[in-house]
Amino acid sequence: MVMGKNDELESLRHQVSDITAQIIRNVHRRMELAKQIGEIKSSLGIDVKDEKVEQEIRLRVLSLADEIGMGRDFALQLLNVLLEESEQAQVQKRLQKGQRQTHLGIFMKAKQLEASGKRIIHMEIGEPDYPPPARVGESLADSFRLRQYHYTDTRGIPKLRDAIAEKEGVSEDEVVVTPGGRFAVFSAITSLLKAGQELIVIEPAWPAYKQCADFIGARTKVLRTTFANKWTPDLQQLEEMMNPSTKMIVLNYPNNPTGKILDGKRLERIVSVAKDNGLYLLSDEVYADYTLKKFASIHEYGYDKSILVSSFSKRYAMTGFRVGYAVANNDIIAKIASVQAIGITSVAEPMQRAALAAMSEYPSENVRMMKKRLDFVCGKLKEMSLRFVEPEGAMYVYPELPRGEDIELVEKLLEKGVAIAPGSGFGDYYRQFVRISACQPEKILEKGLTIMASVMKEQA
Length: 460
Fold this sequence. Notes:
Layout: H1 2-44, H2 51-68, H3 72-97, H4 103-115, E1 121-123, H5 134-145, H6 158-168, E2 175-178, H7 180-192, E3 198-203, H8 208-216, E4 219-224, H9 235-240, E5 246-252, H10 264-277, E6 280-284, E7 306-311, H11 312-315, E8 324-327, H12 330-343, H13 349-358, H14 364-383, E9 396-397, H15 406-415, E10 418-422, E11 434-437, H16 442-459
Parallel strand pairs: 1-10, 3-4, 3-5, 5-6, 6-7
Antiparallel strand pairs: 2-8, 7-8, 9-11, 10-11
Helix pairs in contact: 1-3, 2-3, 5-13, 7-8, 7-12, 14-16
């Protein structure tokens, strides 16, 4: 009897091994076909993504899963892994022709040039030049004097969580303090999504959302907005993008890079779409204090699966302190905190206490100064006859280039000592745009924009 069972076990193992080998061969064959499809699409100038074709494949897989008794969720996860790899295979040659460059990549190049002795005017990064409140510096000294420099609760020191909870109108156990808003985004995406699942991003947008999804093998579906429609998302298109693999919608308002703010009716409809489909709604509200029109936070809508992300970096000019936070229900916060516990234990205690000190002041002067600088940049861009949508918030202007692509202008400006961000860093379909940061004094902005106007004139 035992020998019979052992023989059966070995036979089953051999079958599994053989089937696995067949799967690998078929996947390889599929990838080769995808590359051929990509080459044909490239020659015809066709978009890599084809939602109609994907939906046809998806429906076929669901039908097959039902027929053979396979779980639908698992079948769709496998499909999405294959679709993502196919997409990457199709864009490989296009990427070789011009690798996507982000604002952070340009910033690093600019810093390298500065290290070699070159003077750079920084208009590529959203880092305010003005200092944090004086109380922040005093708090750092107090932390050393009082020996407040130890491990803390992963979620953050209670006093800071209480202060954030009071500001956001939630309870303290619905708050987690993170090392910057970026890690709050990373922790939310990596703890709530699995490989093969999908999130929707409205572009142009900060590239970190897709980067976080890529890190865990999740797929990013893009809802593109256009300059012609003043960067307003088509919500009917959003509803049509829903499928069983969709698990999250990411909002980025006030928008980086355009400065767009969604009106209440559109935001309410997005919340309704999320509710109807049981989706997480991740709202990056880092620029919420820098608004030039009415702005509504996601938490005003009372949706239980929403996650608000914010930061002290922009509001209090504390970029290097790396303090941000997430606000969500208890279960979501616990998942975010679990990622943080594994990755960093906790945010440095002196930085948390500095953030707490900052909260005793409201940065109204910072907001006033940024509005003045944005107006100045807009005025100069108009003098250059560049078209753009007037920003309604944030720290940037996103003008359209009259000719050429963004990388060409960005690289020429770097040679002249001016750093700006390529528009394509916020979405592959925005190569005719650049992002100008208003985080410098007007005299420096004027010098940088004058050089930009000169370089563009040479390109004409």
